[in-house]
Design goal:
With 558 residues, the protein is an alpha/beta fold. Helix content is 38%, strand content 19%. The two termini are 61 Å apart. The model has no long low-confidence stretch (mean pLDDT 93).
């Protein structure tokens, strides 16, 4: 690897930097560039119908500023902009943004596209980076400044004659991160002086990481340096537009917000050139997870994904932050156990704050279901399986029973190498404990009665008679005890079965009403110290208990 041919990005000489000690306490001004920057990066760009559908999604999500296109670049872009205006698709508090290069013909076409609009941002840009000045444009600093100033003069002239009620200028020194800071400041000051913004009619200075060239802390230094050195800061909205070449576009944006950025441009799920633009959803959800109102409607993430995938023909990755199919799924056994305990604690206690291990937000907040949180494969543990059986099917397994059930299910995943869905887990569980096949003992009939009804409760004696199939032979057993279970235990000892001792008993109702099913769990320990559990289910709690006992005995006799 010839790494020595790459130069280290020079740090910013910033005395007394302030952004590291600041915190974010409010959402920025959001601007979606899905319909322009995102669209140009698609293998098959959106047609007018798809752009309309995407626009309506962004509008429903609460975006007030949307870059709708580059209307001077193509007929489709122009027609889409006109459609939004002529069909009154813009709310009164919305602003459309249109991009144009600093050339008279293109600016004129841009103003034709926005004619009659109530509020628009005209976004002018030209590349200012050292490299592009050298190898692309072959122009010096003054010549690059002249391009920007001339473009702004043209926008100002067209704005005076325009039929648009309110026009805001946005200027981007494209490839800001590759531009000398003093030159970026110089060209922006020239633009500001030409436009002459006020507190009431501010200018947007957009400082894009067109190519992400450094660690995000250096980008933050660049933004703080610029904010401290720009004149008439009160008349300027500092905007950032990061890309993701180094994989830190979100971090760069968040640190830039600490450094003074007022406004953020990006796309849904980070769609954009090369490795993509900033992912607006991730930044918004990061704010949400810190108790900050993101001022975007993101409560139905599934709908957002569906429309995005339909319009862009791209897929949202399974591990995408917050939105991915697997991000609220735990495969690790220890994770599953912690999630179960955390959810139990959260649901049973009156908590003001969401605190569940491994889940930074409540999936239900964005339209996700708890059923998708835990999935079972060979890496899963007892906690996740117990959670599935309880949350989806109502079986509240005794804590000591979790390892046994986990081992049974995991044996299947080890043999198949497949992930098991909840229904498959239930089938394994049911066959092992409830619908046992080729069992040593099968209960055919059971009756019991209390012998001395007038005695004190502690002296009550129950007599039971049970008809069984034991190793394919019909048997009738009788027993007495202080309850139906004790009576059955004493009676079943008549059969040729290993000795055992009852060490655990739990029961609960699975549902309410007259047809409620009772479930009983019994643990038996044999002479070798091995404990195995059985489960019984019946509308009669006594029968459920007897079935659980037989289930446990059968499992010992396998």
């Amino acid at each position: 690897m010839s790494y020595k041919k790459y130069k280290k990005f020079e740090p910013v000489k910033l005395e007394n930097r302030e952004w590291p000690s600041k915190t974010i306490d409010k959402a920025p001004i959001w601007c979606s560039v899905d319909l322009r920057d995102g669209n140009q990066a698609l293998p098959v760009p959106m047609n007018v119908d798809k752009k309309t559908k995407m626009f309506n999604l962004l509008k429903d999500m609460g975006f007030k500023e949307i870059e709708v296109g580059f209307p001077s670049a193509s007929k489709a872009e122009f027609e889409f902009t006109r459609k939004l205006i002529e069909e009154n698709m813009l709310d009164d508090d919305m602003t459309i943004q249109v991009l144009t290069q600093a050339r008279e013909k293109l600016i004129a076409k841009t103003f034709d596209a926005i004619d009659g609009c109530k509020r628009a941002i005209v976004h002018v840009y030209n590349s200012t980076s050292t490299l592009q000045r050298k190898v692309v444009f072959k122009k010096n600093r003054k010549e690059i400044i002249d391009i920007a100033v001339e473009g702004v003069k043209l926008v100002k002239e067209f704005a005076k004659k325009s039929n648009v009620e309110e026009i805001t200028l946005e200027y981007s020194p494209e490839s800001f991160t590759g531009t000398e800071l003093d030159f970026a400041l110089e060209i922006c000051e020239a633009v500001i002086a030409t436009w002459n913004p006020t507190k009431e009619n501010k200018i947007i200075i957009n400082l894009p990481a067109t190519v992400e060239m450094s660690m995000p802390n250096i980008y933050a230094d660049q933004i703080e340096w610029f904010c401290k050195n720009i004149s008439c800061r009160e008349n300027v909205i500092i905007s950032v537009h990061t890309h993701n070449d180094r994989g830190t576009g979100v971090a760069a944006t968040e640190l830039a917000m600490l450094a003074g950025a007022d406004r953020v441009e990006g796309t849904l799920f980070g769609n954009g050139e090369r490795t993509g633009n900033l992912d607006l959803l991730t930044v918004a959800m990061n704010l949400y997870s810190q108790g900050i109102n993101p001022r975007l409607n993101i409560i139905d993430i599934n709908n957002i994904i569906n429309i995005y995938e339909e319009c862009t023909m791209l897929k949202v990755h399974e591990r995408h932050p917050y939105a991915g199919e697997l991000v609220y799924t735990a495969f690790s056994g220890s994770h599953q156990d912690a999630i179960k305990k955390g959810l139990d604690c959260y649901n049973n206690e009156n908590n003001d704050y969401w605190e569940v291990p491994y889940l930074p937000i409540n999936p239900a907040d964005i339209g996700r279901e708890y059923e998708a949180i835990i999935r079972i494969n060979s890496q899963s543990g007892k906690g996740g399986i117990a959670y599935i059986l309880e949350s989806q099917y109502g079986y509240k397994l005794p804590k000591k029973m979790h390892p046994e059930v986990g081992t049974i299910v995991q044996k299947v995943t080890d043999n198949t190498g497949k992930e098991l869905n909840p229904n498959e887990i239930l089938n394994i569980f049911t066959k092992e404990y409830i619908e046992q096949e080729n069992s040593a003992i099968v209960l055919n009939n059971f009756t019991s009665k209390i012998e001395n009804k007038k005695a004190k409760l502690k002296d009550v004696e129950v007599t039971m008679v049970a008809e069984l199939t034991f190793k394919n032979e019909e048997k009738t057993i009788k027993g007495k005890g202080n309850g139906p279970i004790a009576a059955f235990v004493n009676g079943v000892r008549e059969l040729n079965i290993p000795k055992f001792k009852l060490v655990e008993y739990e029961e609960h109702s699975m549902n309410g009403g007259a047809d409620a099913q009772a479930v009983a769990y019994i643990g038996l320990i044999n002479e070798n110290g091995v404990t195995k559990y059985g489960i019984g289910k019946d509308s009669n709690i006594n029968l459920a208990s007897i079935k659980a006992l037989i289930s446990a005995v059968n499992r010992h006799m396998k």
